[in-house]
Design goal:
Mean pLDDT: 94
Catalytic activity: S-hexadecanoyl-N-acetylcysteamine + H2O = N-acetylcysteamine + hexadecanoate + H(+)
Largest sheet: 6 strands, parallel
Radius of gyration: 19 Å
EC number: 3.1.2.2
Distance between the termini: 29 Å
Oligomer: single chain
Strand content: 5-15%
Number of helices: 13
InterPro entries: AB_hydrolase_fold
Order of helices and strands: HEHEHEHEHHHHHHEEEHHEH
Number of strands: 8
Structural class: alpha/beta
Keywords: Glycoprotein, Hydrolase, Lysosome, Signal
Main location: other
Helix content: 25-40%
Length: about 290
């Protein structure tokens, strides 16, 4: 019995020290690679020798550049990493805006090598709220922001590219050049690819919580969003799921979609809190 117990303890210790496959981390808005250093350090502390690539481009104000520009530029970085790790592949973590843009990087790269993609408190179904807006545009309010964002000029900023006003959906579809397309709400020549590239993942992990305080509604981190009366349509009742527009239903039916809710975590703590990292992120980095 003691021999068996000793073997189990050995296996547990080994699982905590063995290196993961390489990890690619995509930072959030108005920050940069420095803001993700705690997450990098925790991964390497718990699993030494894990190679972590901390995306250094589009930091600070440049994170407000057009979403498509950031996605296509970041794609060159991902391609280079896939060339370095063609067999083992990569894990990818995208935080906040970086989770949405990182997901789009995968969708536009049909030969990507990412195995597990973790979306960490990201506006996957869009953003609509004053708290987030005032971080970047202090004088704007959510109800009138569409007057700027749903214009050709406004679409030069990343925030406008995924601003989703439930009261102005016609303008959203007419002017938004990014979110309606990557979510296949508007069909394009790339729609099949946008779905197929996500279905190739071993896991898609969606993490968010009701105390986030920035992503609005917080359920957007799970592809849920407001209707016109500000009721949040649950993921399983949403068109993106029921119509399997980007493969979420397929991923769930095959056990590869993980939707995680964690209370008492503010937006700026998802990647800075060891308990959150250890319990919600590390288990999906095998």
């Amino acid at each position: 019995m003691f021999a068996t117990l000793g073997f189990i303890v050995f296996i547990l210790k080994l699982s905590l020290t063995i290196a993961y496959r390489p990890v690619f981390i995509f930072h959030g808005i108005l920050t940069g690679a420095d803001s993700m250093k705690h997450l990098v350090g925790r991964i390497q502390e718990m699993h030494p020798d894990t190679v972590v690539y901390n995306f250094e481009r589009f930091g600070g104000w440049s994170s407000l550049e057009n979403a498509w520009h950031q996605v296509l530029e970041a794609q060159t970085n991902l391609k280079a990493l896939c060339d370095l790790h063609p067999e083992e592949g990569l894990n990818m973590i995208g935080y906040s805006q970086g989770g949405l843009l990182g997901r789009a990087v995968l969708q536009t790269y049909p030969d990507h090598c990412v195995k597990n993609f973790i979306s960490l408190s990201s506006p996957q179904a869009g953003q609509f709220g004053d708290d987030f807006l005032h971080l970047i545009f202090p004088s704007l309010v959510a109800k009138t922001a569409y007057q700027l964002f749903y214009t050709y000029v406004g679409q030069h900023t990343s925030v406008a590219n995924y601003w989703n006003d439930p009261h102005h959906q016609q303008l959203f579809e007419e002017f938004s050049i990014f979110l309606p397309y990557v979510n296949n709400r508007i069909l394009s020549v790339n729609s099949t690819q946008f779905r197929d590239t996500l279905v190739r993942l071993d896991r898609l992990v969606l993490i968010g919580g009701p105390d986030d305080g920035v992503i609005t509604p917080w359920e957007s981190s799970h592809f849920s969003f407001y209707n016109k009366t500000y009721d949040v349509i649950p993921l399983h009742e949403s068109e993106i799921y029921t119509e399997d527009l980007i493969g979420l239903k397929t991923l769930e039916e095959t056990g590869r979609l993980h939707v995680i809710v964690r209370e008492n975590v503010h937006h700026y703590q998802w990647h800075r809190t060891n308990d959150v990292i250890d319990s919600l992120i590390l288990p999906y980095l095998d």
